[in-house]
């Protein structure tokens, strides 16, 4: 009976199911089918033999990576940059949304939002070009300010390993802070105005209304976004890290994504596709484990979780 009802409902809403079929087909073709290629992480893949005929080697590539001298470096750099980005960049969009929500003039609010959204649409290549020009020790703004305040030539920050995480993280915050605050603006738009009116009648200040009304309203959204962000803790954007790399800062800028690219495609270590796939698969598994752990903690502490 239920099966017949399901068939009738599918026929009745066939147009909606047809629209749903397109994104489902996209996910299957471009996200699930390529997962078959992940098996080369357990094989000694050779293009001439193909995926299925390549020799099975088990966990040899994973063991090779864990025992490699690059393991500690790329893991350390990836974790430092990811945690730095999460700790420094996650609260700022929340604070920005709460601050702009206090503005009474809608025109000023929309103007500020538009200005803050714009950097998100700037290409990463352009962002790196701006950083290169701005922090150039000879002709850049940084160089001119340094020489105006002190004598001598300024250090080259773009080639300094200690400066790499700061430049990477804060340039990313500047680029995405406005865009990341959209979710919180949307959540704040659902705040019941009668709550604010009642609080104002009781003499509550604007700060108290933010603490007791606005923050509890957006807290579920904040927790969900935080959980999703922790699921990418081992992922550092390849394009930006690769473009900011040079031979002098490589000790701090070599992360998992850039190392996988070099190992798999550029000839480092003989263009070992299987080894690069094993590193990428290892990275994905660690991200999944962290996501599950953080989700369970959030569910136990605040009863808010993804599942």
Describe this structure in words.
The chain is mainly alpha-helical and 307 residues long. It has two domains: 1-58, no CATH class; 60-113 and 178-302, MetI-like fold (Orthogonal Bundle), CATH 1.10.3720.10. It is 69% helix and 1% strand. It has 17 helices and two strands. The chain has helices at residues 2-12, 14-32, 50-53, 60-66, 69-89, 91-100, 106-117, 124-134, 141-149, 164-180, 182-188, 193-201, 206-230, 238-244, 250-253, 256-265, 273-302, and strands spanning 43-44, 55-56. A two-stranded antiparallel sheet has the order 1-2. The longest helix has 30 residues, at 273-302. The relative contact order is 0.12.
Query: Could you state the order of secondary-structure elements as H and E?
Result: HHEHEHHHHHHHHHHHHHH
Quickly count the domains.
Answer: 2
CATH architecture of the largest domain: Orthogonal Bundle
In whole angstroms, the N-to-C terminal distance is: 30 Å
CATH superfamily annotation of the largest domain:
MetI-like
Give the C-alpha Rg: 25 Å
DSSP helical segment count: 17
CATH topological fold name of the largest domain: MetI-like fold
- Strand order in the largest sheet: 1-2
Number of E strands: 2
Uncertain parts: none
